[in-house]
Design a protein that fits this description.
This protein has 119 residues and is mostly beta strands. The chain contains no helices and 11 strands.
Length: 119
């Protein structure tokens, strides 16, 4: 049974920082492309940052230079360091594990963690 458990969300003032963590279990962590997505109220879920198949990191334009994704395969954990937070970063942040094998996609999601940026 695959589980992704996020933590680290909360309320932070504009300009502040948070670090999200996602611990995975029940899968071979190092073969999965790990990523972070977010969904704000009334909006569609969007990619925030992810590792691609070749290990390259990809970020949505609005977070480039402020957010950093990293992973520790020994701990089955992916992180999202978020700096210089803005009100528009407020959303539920979810962890994703993705793998494609012979044209079949495998996707697993965590339950999400709320990030609220407000003064």
């Amino acid at each position: 049974q695959v589980q992704l458990v996020e933590s680290g969300g909360g309320l932070v003032q504009p300009g502040g920082s948070l670090r999200l963590s996602c611990v995975a279990s029940g899968l071979t962590f190092n073969v999965y492309d790990m990523g972070w997505y977010r969904q704000a109220p009334g909006k569609q879920r969007e990619l925030v940052a992810r590792f691609t198949g070749s290990g390259i990191t990809e970020y949505t334009d609005s977070v480039k230079g402020r957010f950093t994704i990293s992973r520790d395969n020994a701990k089955n954990t992916v992180y999202l360091q978020m700096n210089s937070l803005k009100a528009e970063d407020t959303a539920v942040y979810s962890c994703n594990a993705h793998m494609s094998v012979i044209g079949r996609n495998y996707d697993y999601w965590g339950q999400g963690t709320q990030v609220t940026v407000s003064s």
